[in-house]
Amino acid sequence: MASHFRTGQARRTATLLFFFLCLISISYAARLPASRQKFEVQKHLNRLNKPAVKTIKSPDGDIIDCVHISHQPAFDHPFLKDHKIQMRPNYHPEGLYDESKVSAKPEERSKPITQLWHLNGRCPEGTIPIRRTKEDDVLRASSVKRYGKKKHRTIPQPRSADPDLINESGHQHAIAYVEGDKYYGAKATINVWEPKIQQPNEFSLSQLWILGGSFGEDLNSIEAGWQVSPDLYGDNNTRLFTYWTSDAYQATGCYNLLCSGFIQINSEIAMGASISPVSAFRNSQYDISILVWKDPKEGNWWMQFGNDYVLGYWPSFLFSYLADSASMIEWGGEVVNSEPDGQHTSTQMGSGHFPEEGFGKSSYFRNIQIVDASNNLKVPKGIGTFTEQSNCYDVQTGSNGDWGHYFYYGGPGKSPNCP
Ligand SMILES: *[C@@H]1O[C@H](CO)[C@@H](O)[C@H](O)[C@H]1NC(C)=O
Ligand SMILES: *[C@@H]1O[C@H](CO)[C@@H](O)[C@H](O)[C@H]1NC(C)=O
């Protein structure tokens, strides 16, 4: 009886011990990939965050590193090892400052804009400001490799053969566009707002697209504008951004300076940093000017922000089609509709108000222009518009003496008309 008892107890102890060992090995197995992931994240952060000459803490929580110009991420690219930085473009497009000679009506005058981090300091000459990537930023991405890259092909395709495909990705657009010619740049002055985002995995942006090639696997794109993207930045602030890809968002390209490609020369503007202030409904309006153009001599694609800041360039060799010229230009808004609860998202585009409401209420692009083969800024000919669901987000074009070609765009997303 006693021995029976002991055997039973021993069996129970052995069983317990077995479960205990299992538990240990399970938790060990679970920890191993976690520590490997931490290692991968750290390695990626070390690659992205270059040693800083000076560091500035922005009121929004961002850390801006002033990095020596020749230590920026671009120079990790094998093709850029011996690259001689171009400190200025050979040419600006002709006619660049013509529009500022026209004085806007007082009620349609907008104010200049800066970046929030300027409140706490500036970067010295010879450095460029880079928004530091934090561990949390990378951990919010689906993988270390996908951090800083777009998830899907998101180009609005005004004349897609298969309209169902357009809707499938859940991205919605309200854009104006031109195609059918060779384009060497584009410009726009974009009204800046802070649209509400319903789900952290959604975003709202307003930008221009410079596109080369057809909409296949080798699509080339250069993009610039403002965006609110909780996933990418960890908050709801409106930020200046750029994007590029030479293979339809697959292996190449990224936002801002999150991969090697764009070469920045400017010490005052940080890609991905918050824009401040932003426009308020029936109140002060703020807008930013963005110009992207191809240097006719070297072939690089340059970007200028406002009248004063030449930010830098995408070297021509990054691209296939865009190494020659662009075949399409698009301007407008894009949101992700993840259909939370099976209904349309309430994520706003632009100001969250429809074009009909006009200045001070609806968001706009004004003085939209293209750069032609003779390096002249011109009004775009044959502008088309496109939206997947105009009952959710819409676009309306117009033209006048002050604003040249312009359009209002955007909307509230979910509403009784957009269920
Ligand atoms: C962003 O806005 C959403 C609602 O629009 C809110 O739920 C969320 O807490 C905000 N996120 C941050 C980091 O402020
Ligand atoms: C997208 O889907 C919506 C809702 O199903 C539909 O009303 C709209 O016409 C579609 N748009 C396109 C361009 O197919």
UniProtKB/TrEMBL annotation:
Residues 165-419 form the Neprosin PEP catalytic domain. It comes from the Eukaryota. Residues 146-166 are annotated as: Disordered. InterPro entries: Glutamic_endopeptidase (IPR053168), Neprosin (IPR004314), Neprosin_propep (IPR025521). Keywords: Signal. Pfam families: Neprosin (PF03080), Neprosin_AP (PF14365). PROSITE patterns: NEPROSIN_PEP_CD. Residues 1-29 form the signal peptide. This is Neprosin PEP catalytic domain-containing protein. It comes from Liquidambar formosana. The lineage of its organism: Eukaryota, Viridiplantae, Streptophyta, Embryophyta, Tracheophyta.
